[in-house]
Amino acid sequence: MDREPGRDRDQEGRARSARPRDGLGRPLPYGAEGVARQPEGVVRGPDGTVREAQRLLDAGMPFHAHEVFEDAWKSGPADERDLWQGLAQLAVGLTHAARGNATGGVRLLRRGAGRVEEYARGGAETYGVDVAGVAAWARELAARVEAGGGVPDAGAEAPRLRVSG
Q1: DSSP structure string for 33-69
Q2: Which residues pair with 41 in a beta bridge?
Q3: Is 118 helix (H, G, I), strand (E, B) or coil?
Q4: How many CB atoms lie within 10 A of CB 70?
Q5: How much is the pTM?
Q6: Which of 7, 94, 129, 149 could cross-link to 62 by cystine, CB 3.0-4.6 Å?
Q7: What does the alpha-carbon distance between residue 152 and residue 105 come to, in Å, rounded to a whole number?
Q8: Can you give the pLDDT of all 165 residues of the chain as single tens digits?
């Protein structure tokens, strides 16, 4: 397989950047001190997924929380995919907003809010996720960012996924 020189690839040729990243997932120069990457393909139960994602959100690492939700949608039951994808979109929306990408952040925050609400309307299990609270948080943040309210601090503005923790 032809590979671009200087591009980090895995054995199948997929891009896998070895560059260190900051807490918002932005690439840093090779050799710089970055944050530990989330391992890919970790299978957790729903409670473990929500707990680990909340820990990362609270630490100001929504990009990494998105990867936890991505593992859940890829390894979990197909009928729960919209819950985990919606939560991943919210985490990535916060990531983009905190990076200063207002347009992308607003779009993903609103899309994720709609997706988790639609999932919950069907009466499916939400594993204690406060869907109404998380959707309200996302819409409020999206409106503030869209109105020019500045770049949010990802850790200080992280959502509470569950009412009690």
Answers
A1: --BPPPPTT----HHHHHHHHHHHHHTT-HHHHHHHH
A2: none
A3: helix
A4: 19
A5: 0.84
A6: 94
A7: 10
A8: 444 455 555 566 655 567 888 778 778 788 888 777 766 778 899 999 999 999 999 999 999 999 999 999 999 999 999 999 999 999 999 999 999 999 999 999 999 999 999 999 999 999 999 999 999 999 999 999 999 999 999 999 999 999 875
